[in-house]
Each structure stands twice: as structure tokens, then as C-alpha cells.
Amino acid sequence: MSSDAASTQVTGDPVGQKSDPGGGPGLKLAALAAGFVMATVDTTVINIAGTKIQTLLHLKFSELTWVIDGYVLTFASLLLLAGSLANSYGAKKIYLLGMAVFVVASAACGLSSNGPALIVSRMVQGAGAALFMPASLTLLTNSFPDPKMRTRMVGLWTAIVSTFTALGPVIGGVLVGTLGWRSIFMLNLPIGIAGILLARRYVAEIPAQHIRPRVLGNALGVLGLVALSFTLIEGPSLGWSSAPVLLSGTAAFVFLVALVVQQRRSSTPIVPLDLFRNSCFTASNLVGFLINFGLMGGIFMLGLFLQNARGVSPFLAGIQMLPMMAGPLVGNLIFARYSPRWGARRLLIAALSLAGVATAALLGISDSTPYWMLATAVGIANFGIGVGAPAMTFALMESAGAKHANIASSTLNTNRQFGGLVGVAAVGIVLTDPDSWYAGARTSFLITAVCYGAAALLTLKYVTMDDHRTV
User: pTM for the full model?
Assistant: First the structure.
């Protein structure tokens, strides 16, 4: 979940909301930011807590990867379906349901006594996040009819999410170091309950549109992602030629091919297929996938690397990751400031190239590499991603046009979560040897650098847009 998430749906007029239930802008903002903050922080704090969880629950490395990826799997798989459910049954109802599921699942995570229980609870958490994430943006934009106030509130909402993204590792380090790993999940309880109560009281209903959800297509997508995740995560431990891995790999191929065939024949596909005939739209989605592949895989690796290879405590690991995680926030601000003058495409190419070069600078990392060099290189790379992510979003939304803006933003968010899912699984493959942390880190940085470089080349060749530069 990146810090530019709000940029995908910040326009459009409120649609048929019921009477304003009262309450100031701050209360409405708090009600709708609560869920996004919980979900955003959970994607980063778990990377700091991972080493402690693995030790205390006696998890295999593949099980730890499931703890991280299980959440992203259900989130990415159900995101598009959740958006259609919000349309069909009302955004507020689905938002409250998602928040309740997330809070209950967080409590279950905190009470888990073994790996399987924690993995299942994390998957339920991801399902809850998928329900409330699309609805939160819809409710936010519809809570403020005045365009100027709406723009201001979306800006504040984005700033809150970006700030907590950067602070996530520090929060995780403090909690794990003082109260134990269970506290990172229990923290969600007061935040989630407060968000539910505020939303019930101060957020207006939006009438349901009674649109039939596209269940078959979403089901095929979910089954395909589950099978693919099993293949990637369990392959190193079970063996790539083992029967379960071969079976799951085959199943992933069959389900995903069936999804494509079903969507081509459907009169109401999940995503209008004409969009993918637009090279800019398709390339922008691939760029989004590669960005999250590199970013989320890298964050997963760093949280473990700092504690296992460098021997620092969870608290110190969180502190050391803070300057690295601040890069996307600063990059977002730079994009907002300079994109009218330099153009989104130029910024996207430059930012991705910078991220790739900075990451490649760490290909020779060893036990003699000083912390400041690691932090500087990763911080610069993440700064580049902070500039590039909103630029990529702008390119995709412009290629889709106003007619397909909502489905394009949902597709992008789903695709980026899928990129993070595969990125974590891929990095998990190269980190399976606990005695070769530096070799694993070098391979991880190589993978990330290749992703960013490939994204820059895709942008250079296929992404075109009207930059509307000013002097």
C-alpha cells in the first residue's frame, strides 16, 4: 500500500448521499482514515516483528513468508470484488463490515499461539482490509460536497497515510521491543473500534446501486493467486519438483488462463478489455506491478536483514528503517510540487532510473558496509519511488479517461498489491538460507534494481501522456 493511494480517486462529485449526520470535518476524516492507517501500518510493522515472531512461534521461513503474504493475498484477491460489493450494498455498510472483520482478526492475530492460527488470522485481516479500503475513499469524497474542502480533506488523508507508512517500522520496533510482538495487532483494537463508532455516527450513507457482483471472474482470480502463492512460497522448502508444488503451479496456470477466457467471453467483464488494448494503460499497470514488487520485497528483506545479519534489536531496526521509509513521503511532495513544471512522464522516467541506480549501488553489500551507506542508497531509491508512484498513477488514469476512472484505479490498486505479493514471495525464495544473509541481500537488491530498470524502460517506450507543463 503506497503513500500515493489516495491519488487514484480524488475527483468526482458526491453521488446521492443521504443527509449529513453532522460532526466536523475532523471527525469525518478520523473515522475514514482509521481503517487505512491500520492497514498501512500493518504492512510495515510486521516486517520488524517477523524475526521475533519466527523465533517465539518456532516458524519455518516459509511460514513466516505466509504471515506476510497471507494478508496481501486476500487483500489483493478480494479488492475488486469488495469495490463492487460497496456499490451493490452501500459503501458505509461494507466499510463498517470490513472494519469489524479487521478488528476481530487483529485480536485473533494477537492471541495466536502457533503459525497456522496466525496465518489464517492474517488472511482474515486482509479480507477485512479489502472490504473497507475502496469504501473509505468513496465515503471520504462523498462526505465533503464542496470541491475545495474535498480536495483539502483528501490531501490531509493522504498526508496521514504517508506519515504512518514512514512511521510504521518505528512503531513496530517500539511495540515489539517494549510490549512484545502481539502488541502490534492489539493496537488495532482501540483504533478500529473508535473508527467504527465515529463512522456510524458521523459518516453519511450512500444509496446502494444494486449492481450484481461479478462472482465467477473474481473467484477464478482468487483461486489462481492462491495457487501461485503456494507455488512460490512452498517451492524452496518442499522442492520445485515435488508433487504439491507442481500441482499448485499447474492449478495457478489453469485458473488464470480460465480467468482470461471467461473475461473475454463475458458481456460484463471485471475490467473492460478495451483498456488493455491501450499500450499506455497496460504499460502503466506493469510499471505499478514492478514498483511494488521491488518496494515491498525490499522492505520485507530489510526488516529481517537488519536483525539477523546486523544483529540489531527490533527497536533499533525500526529506527534505522525510518530514514529509508521517509523517502516515499518526500518523493510524493516533490512530485506534487514539480510535476506541473516538468511533466509527469519526465519525472517518472528520471525517478525510476534513480531508484534503479541507487539500488544497484548496494549489489556489493557486505559486513563492512556502513549503515549510513545502506540507509542513503535505500532512502534515495525509495525517494525515487515516491516520485514515480504518483506519476505512474497519473499516466494510468489519463490513459483510462474519465469514463473508466473508477475501474482503472481499482485495477491499479489490485495490480500493485499483486506485485507486492509476488515480490515478498520472490525475496523469500532468495532468503531461505539463514547462513547467507549478505548473499541473500545482494540477490534481493539485484532483483529490485532490475524491476526498477525494467519499469523505466517500459515507461520510456510505451507510456505517453499530455504533460501540460508550465514554465
Answer: 0.82
